Structure formats: C-alpha cells, structure tokens
Fold these 2 entries.
Entry 1:
Amino acid sequence: AVNVHSAEQLPKRFYGAEHLGLPTLNKLNVPPAWKNEPPKTIGLDIESLASALRVAAGYQVGAEGTRRIAPNGGGLGIASLYVIARQVRGLEPGIYHYFGYEHKLERIGEVADELLLGALGDTSSSMPPAVVIGTAQMTKLRNKYDNFAFRLSILDAGVTKGCLYEALNALGIPHFDYVGARDKVLAQILRLPVAGHRNTITFAIALGEDKISGLKTHANVNHNLYPDSLIEWSSQLGPTTLPAANSTRVQSLFSVTTDRNLWDVMISRRSTRTFDDRPLDAKTLNLILSLSGSIDESCVNVGGLSLQMTLWVVVAVDGSSLKRGVYRWNHGANQLELRRENFSTELLESTMSQKGFAQAPVTLFIGGNFEQAVTNYGARGYREMLNRAGTMMLRAQLVAEALGLSGCMWGGITEEACGELLNIDRYRDCPLFGGSLGYPENV
C-alpha cells in the first residue's frame, strides 16, 4: 500500500519559483535518427528544447489517465531535469527546473559562466547555448528499493538521457556529455537540498555545441555497497584525466520498415507484461540489437566514457530462424552467437524478481565490464555503466515499438542466477538491466 501511494503522489512544484509555460508545438513529428539522417540544426530554440524535455520527463494525458511518457522505475518518476539556458531563442537566460507534469519551466535563478564552467569540469572551452542536468530524487526510491536505490536511480537516468538523445538526434541538435561534471557544485548551483543524499546529480549534457570533457578517478568500489557510499564516491574526482573524446556526432543508419515518427513511437510505448507466443525472427531481433549497440557507440562519440558493454538474449520460443537458447550479441560481426541451447524455465525465472517476465518470447540482458569501468574511472565508471545500460535498453524498446512489438524493462535482476544462466563471472560481465520483448497479445 505504501508503494502504491508513493507512485500515485503528484510531482511537486519548485517552491517560490517563477513559472513559464512552454510551447506545445511538437517538433518530433520526424523520423527517428536511426531511420533517416536529420539535417544539422543551427542554434537552439525553445520549441526544440521543450519537445526534448517533454519526452524525457514530461507527461501525456490519455484514456488511462495522466502518465509519464518515459519509462521509470516503479512508476515513481524520480528522474528530474534542470536547464541552464544561455542562448536559447525564445527563452531568457537563467536556471530552470522542468516541471513536466504541467510542461512548464520554473525559473530559480542565474549562474555566472565562470562558475558553471568549473562545475562542468571544463574551464578551457566556450559555453554551449544550454546545459541539461539530470537529477534523482532519492527519498521516494529509498522507501521502496532501499539498497537497490542507487542502481535503479542511475538506470532511470540512463533511460531519461536516452530519451533526450533520441529527440536531439532526430532534431539534428549537437550535444555533448560532461562526464567530468562536479556533482556537488552543480547541486549548489541548482539550489538542490542534498543533505542525506535526498537528491543526486546523474548527468550533465551540453546542447547546441560539442565540448571536450575530463574525468578523474576513485579506486575502491564495489557495486553492492550501500547507496550513500556509491553516491558519495561517484561524485568525487581524483588525479587522472581522460583524453578528449571524438566529438563528431555519428548516426547509425539502418533500413527500418516503419513510417512512424519519433513522437508517435514515444507516446505509444507501454510497459507490456503479457505477450503472444509468436516467436521473433532473427532479422527483427538482429535489427533491435544492432541499434541498441549503436547507441553505445554514439554515447562515446558525444563525450561518454569508453565502456565495455554486453548484450545477451534469451530466446524462450522456437522459431524458424531462431531456436530456443541463450545468445550473445557480437556487435563487431553484427550477429547473434549461440552460447547455450538447453536451459529450464525455472532457471530463467530465477534471474528476475518478477517471474512473470519469463513468459516473454525474448528476454534481453545488458551487462558491462565492471572491472574495466572501476579500474579506469573509479565509482564514476560504475555510475556511467549503469547510465549507459539504461540508454541502450531504452533504444531497444523504442525500436521494438517501431517494429510493432512491445516490451518492458526491469531492474530487478538476480545476479547469481544471471551468472549461471549466461555463464558469466558477474565481474568482467556484470548484469545490469533486464528487458522483455515480444508481440502483444491478440495482435
């Protein structure tokens, strides 16, 4: 009952803030970037910004009521967005909180460029037109998920970032990920209450201009640590600086058989838990995995950390082109590799906290090399690895929706059982996120 009550609580306004209604003009009636190459946009306007914010943290009114457009863990809507606007056409410079429930900006102050540059960890470059900062409201999440709260908050952030990337890519707006942002300074700039880690910074993205960023490390990390330790360590910076990332925006173009625009795909997506028993063919599944893997590459090319992510697929229903089994996605060869033929339904069920997900024709697991992430980047590496998993899973779900499938993503995975099913060590291939895919019932 407490969990249901938490999910039903309406978002709260920023006390004392000046409210600014955003344009309702939707600029996302365009093909996804993974279908067609969009024209590169010069500058940034309030309509484009509003469209991107809406799909990432906004709401949609429908027959079933008002719902958050982007998937979010437990339906709690803990991911929140702030905008620092500098040169956005139609918007006065300042710091804003996006109140997605009413599709408004709440103006909460201003910040000097010098302070912002220092907070973003980049004191040598010019400023972009705008910066979008992601945060997590940890109090609600702790009440429901306790020690799992850190992991789920960052997976949620990855999904939110993925929605932003999909919108920005479709609109042709350059962007860059400030992986070296200084969390505590950003929190002060945003006037965020952080005592007891009630709010945490999850990402910072430049809009409208490519940037160069640096990151420093912290060594002693274990992904099972209490959330407070992970939050604290992932906010700290140490002595090692990353090389500059290749800031050229890379689009992964595939022939996707769909005429649906990005907005339609975004708002049509639902978290589906029951599926038809029809199998997925290899071509369809390969396309979903190709595009999920390509967003990993794109994240690196806009300033993200170079991480070693893995995609695993468990096919539960025999088909003509894809037999029941456990497969690993080889992104370099662009193909599935069969790793195991025989497994029990009970073993698959044991990998997830809700056994009903095992009824899906296809189960997708996203993992990452925990050793490589924390050795090279410390706790920040673990945070970014979770973030990336959320972005990749969001892409997989959107492509599936565009192709007429449905799905659900879930963070409640059992690592020990995943290790047994996938035959992985859970360290160099650490399971992070799960998802279900299939055709919807009665379609």
Entry 2:
Amino acid sequence: MKKIFVLLLATSAKFLFAQEEDNSIRVKTTLKEVTVFLNHASLKHVVSAFNIPQGTQNIVLENVSASIIPPTIQISGKGNFVILSSEFRINYIQPKSVSKQIKQLEDSLEELQNKVNIRDIQLSTYDNEEQLLLENKKMSGNNTGISVAELEKMANFFRTRLNEIRAKKLELQPTSKKYQEQISKIKNQLKELNYRKSTPVGEIYVTVYANVNVNNVELSIEYICNNAHWSPQYEIRVNDLDKPANVLLKAEITQNTGVDWKNVNLSLSTSNPALNNNKPKLSPWWLYFQPNQYQKRKGYPKAESAPAAYNKNAQEIDGNEAEDTKTAEYAYEYTNASEKINSIEYIVSIPVTIESNNKSARIDIQNYNVSANYLYYAAPKITEYAYLIAQIPDWSKYNLLSATAYIFIENSFIGTSEINPDITKDTIEISLGIDKNISVKREIIKKHNEKKSIDNTRKETRAYEISIKNKKKNNINIIIEDQMPLSSVQEIG
C-alpha cells in the first residue's frame, strides 16, 4: 500500500507541474544589450511577435541569467494588456540544449571507446593463446615418446607462433597509448562544456491581464546580474622621447552569467553597483593618554607611479599611420566615451560576442596620444637604477582609471607599472621602467665620518657622495632624491 501511495504522489506532482506548464505561455527571449560594470552587469532582453489570449495569463520568459538580482528586474511592453507582477525562478529541471560541439565530441568519444574495447579483446585473445602455447609446450616436453624430428617440428611451430603473437601485441601498444591520449583530451573538453550544460536555467514569470486577445505583443526585460565584471588595463608605448606617448585602454571582461552574449550591443561603465552608497557618518573621536611607545620606522618613500589619458573622439588616431583602407581595424575605432553624472560609459558600436565561460575577453576601447615631459628619477639609497618617468600635465581631462599599465619602449615590452589617478596634483607621473644606460651610486665618505661623545650626549656625522654615469648619446634631465634623518623623539635633536 505504501508503494501505491508514493506512486500516486509522484503522479500527482507530475500532473500539477504539467498543468502549470500548460497554463503558461513560454517564450524565448533574445539578448540585445549588455552594460558591464566594474562589478555586475545589466542585461536587456526582448521578446516580439507572440500572442496573449483574453484574461489573466502567466508568461514564462526563458533564456535569462540564473544569477539575477530579483529587485532589479524591470519589464515593459507594447500592446493592449496590463503587466500585473513578475517573479524570478531558477529551473533546475529543464536542462540547457546540447550544442552541436558536445554531440560531436560525445560521438567521437564513443567511437574511440569502441576501438579501445576491440583492442582489449585482441590483446586478451593473444594473451590466452600465448598462455595456451606455453602450457602445451610443457606437456610436450614431458612426453618422452616423441621423436627428434617431431620435437624439432613442434619447437619450430611454438617459436614461430609465439613470435607472431608477441609482435602483434607490440603493434597494439602504440595504438593503445594514442587512443588513451585522445580520450583524455575529449573528456577534458567535455568536462568544460558540460559544466555550462549543467548550469541551471533562469526564468522570469510575468502575470498579465488582457481585456481582449492581443496579437504581436512585444516585451522588454532588463535586470542586473552577478558573475560579470570588467577591469581596465593600459598599454603605453613610447618610441621617441621627443614625441607624445601612445596610450591604449583595454577592457578585460569576464562573465559567467549562464547566458552567452551573442552579437550584443556592449557598453562598459566605470560605476560599481556593488559599492555601499550610504554616505559616511563620523563618530566622536575620543583622545586618551597612553604610555610612550617608540617604534622603529621601516621603509622609505617610494617614487609615485602614475597613469595615462582619455579619448574624446574614437577617430583620433596617430596621423603617422599608413592610410591603407585594407588593413584591419580595431574595436577602439568603433567605441565612444560618454560622461554620465558619476561615471564614464564606453559604448561599442559594433556587435560583440562573449561566451559565458568565466574566461577573460579583452577589447580595445580607447587609443590616443598624450603629450608628456620625459625625465629620469633615481633614489640611490634604495637602488642604483634610474627610472624613466613620463610627466603628464593637466591629466584630469583624460578620465584615467586605476589600472595596471603594460609598458612598451620602442615596441619592446619592458614590464608593468601602476596608474593611480587618485591624487590631487596637476601633473601625474607614469613610471616607464629602468634605463640601464644610466647608473647612480651613493657611497659613504669615510674621512668625513665622525663620532663624538660628550657627557651623556653623542654626536655622529656622516657624509655621502652621489655619482651619476650617463652612457646615452644625449643629455638627460634627472631627479635624484635622498633622505635626511628625522627625529621622532625629543632626545634626538
């Protein structure tokens, strides 16, 4: 009786689920626009040309992200109907459709596995035959009634057949290794693809009411979702110290929303919805007496690292470029920057495709030349190297972003630097790396060093000599920074 009850319960649940599905209008959405923030992304889907019968209806919008932040869902439409409510759900039952690539890989894997099984059968057969021959050889050897001629004939047979069997087994070994390598590669690829296949599907249930039958309905769905972000990267190229530096801004985009962004209108925003938008509140700052503590101060001031610039017009390209219309173009030539109230938005005017695979995709979004003053900086107390510095005046007009900069000098990659626009100076500095043609040394002058003790006081004098060697053909401008000791207690004057 218990088994019958479970069966009836399962059948009833299946019936209720089917009934809910029968009463709903299921429609597939098409992703049209994506705005990626520094954290999160805004996705806009559309649905067109479907009909709504008279009365209250449930519409299931398929193919949306499973990582939606429900309060951000916005729905609008065109047609003679009323949008009553919406609800976000995750469908764990309906799997994603299997792509052609997965099907082909699964077929290839099955074919290879069949070949491996056939090879295993052949090896097993040869092993059994070899074992049988060896056993018969022992039995024949124990039979003393065999003539010398018969024994020689049997020995030749055993030798010939055993050689054939072992040669066949050797022939099968390379194919065995080859098949296993191919199977391993296909399984690894399927593991990555099936991860996306097993991702749950997001759905939005929309309840609407219509006085009459409505044809050719249009819906627009927009929402914020997790698992997507972008980060800026700069590429700075300097080919001549008498010419401006070229700055390329790249966007590194990563998304794992569960929805492939296929041929979408892409925008990149410098805002971050994940930040706390509540204004700060200062609490009372109480002062207390504490015991004197002397701390040993470590480290030295570091040279400020600095940034690059901003593209007002996507068509501003280096005038020295060859005017060959047949050369490939870049995404930054189709990207415009738009200033919002509290952010910058980069709008790509050509369709972009980024798959939901949690892998980084890079898009060039700005390219421009920046006037800069070049000089060298050295801190010989820390290092003997001199660093090439690009000073960019009036840098605030470029809307720089905090990012890593990849430095190229005369088309050779020399390392990375950091751009930090969070400063209040009028001029920002970008460190362009070490120039080994310039060396700076800081050496102590022993004859000027003195130590004197008078009563309870001690006086110490130190002197240093700083020397610079320039191996370059041209004269250079260099800033050299050194340190004077500072007292943190009254007893040291």
